[in-house]
Amino acid sequence: MNEQFLLQMQQILKDEYPAYLESLSNPPTRGFRINPLKTNEKDFFEKVDVSHTKSPYAKYGYYTDDKKYGSMPEYASGAFYMQEASASSAVTVMDPKGGAVILDMCAAPGSKTTEILELLENQGLLVSNEIDKKRSHILLENVERNGASNCIVVSNDPLQLAKQFPGFFDMVLCDAPCSGEGMMRKNTEAVDQWTPQLVEHCASVQKEVLESVYTCLKADGILLYSTCTLNLKENEYQIKQFLERHPDMQMMDTNVNFGRRALCEEHDIQKAIRIYPMDHGEGHFIAKMKKCSVTAPCSIKQLKSDLIPKEILSLLKDTIEEVYPYLYFKNNRLYGGTYPFIDTGKLHLLRNQVYIGEMLKGRFEFSHHFFMSSYSKFKNTYEMSDEEVKRYMHGEQISANVQKGWVAMCYHGFVVGGAKSDGHALKNKYPKAFRTR
């Protein structure tokens, strides 16, 4: 490791520095979260054979020693999400509640976005943003699998979000781009790329992002700032400078029983917390703040839907037990959601709540996202055997005498995707990009 980095950690940790060095020789922790939008803990562990120990960092979080998950049908269904346990701590400190309007400013790959959505329980709204185009599509994939019906996914510079949504959000999560010092045990790239210049660069980027975040917050709004790095420049000093620029922002207690006090007493910054690799996790910094000034409310227009053809509405009602409270039809594409469809202006929009499907060559085709949605139960389902689910995820047709029409393909009761029945066979609609080889 870089000698300058080790000297920095020795100065930060003092007597605990040897324990930190020893922790780096241990394997990184592995974890997952159960998705309460699709299952509960009792039901999940009855159906899924996975080693697990409860994590203190998240309501539905667990440690595990198991390693193979990506090909599991339960993972494909969104019943659980792989996440290093202590990485879930930021959203736990944030404590989002149903009905809140929230922004996740730097969201990919979607770990914290999906955790927020699980706690919102299909109420309120989450705008999930990732500036990097390639990473934004990974974010979208994870949001789809999660199954929430109240998420907008965009890919923009934070300045553009601030311009479109000034004073709009009850809460903003800023999981800022950082030097990744807390991830060195699990990511050799973080070790190789570390330099003092990288720390300075990240601190500069964080400062700019925080200014956009501040603009997006409404009066009494909550800002949650987090990093997975350990130096003071990107953490305590970053928050100190931010609070000095914005005296209307005040530190809040985290109200959690994990983590260590931050390393700065000014402006109550000691209320923030640090997590180290020797704390049965990796490295994180979390600060919670409140905007106490009066902010002019942001007025956002609602989108006006085209007239939805009666045959599409009839098909939707025949397929699910309860239709979404809000529907939006444009350019032959139908979307559903539990929050009114809002105008995102010139933002690069990847998804507006649930993409139900579209008209193709005179017929309506449901999307994979629709089958991943947790909002409503499907009327026509097919429970696959162990062998059938392997074939289905491989893209094969399944022979079965099933009522004609659209069918939710299930395994252990979890919807893995969709198919269309002709009465004797189920035509596979599992996306080619997700199929196993």
Protein traits:
437 residues, ten-stranded mixed beta sheet, five-stranded mixed beta sheet
Coarse structural class: alpha+beta
Find the count of extended strands (DSSP E, 2+ residues). 23
Helix content class: 25-40%
Give the percentage of residues in beta strands: 15-25%
Q: Give the terminus-to-terminus CA distance.
A: 39 Å
Oligomer: single chain
| Unreliable runs | none
Number of contiguous helices = 14
Describe the structure in your own words.
- The strands form four sheets. Strands 5, 6, 7, 8, 9, 10, 11, 12, 13 and 16 form a ten-stranded mixed beta sheet that branches.
- With 437 residues, the chain is an alpha+beta fold.
- Helix 8 (158-164) packs parallel to helix 10.
- 29% of the residues lie in helices and 25% in strands.
- It has 14 helices and 23 strands.
- The protein has helices spanning 3-13, 17-24, 41-47, 73-76, 89-94, 111-120, 133-146, 158-164, 188-193, 196-216, 236-245, 310-319, 368-372, 386-394; strands spanning 31-34, 53-54, 61-63, 80-82, 101-104, 125-129, 151-154, 169-175, 217-227, 249-251, 260-261, 273-275, 284-291, 326-330, 333-337, 349-352, 354-360, 363-366, 381-383, 398-399, 405-411, 414-421, 425-428.
- Strand 22 and strand 23 form a beta hairpin.
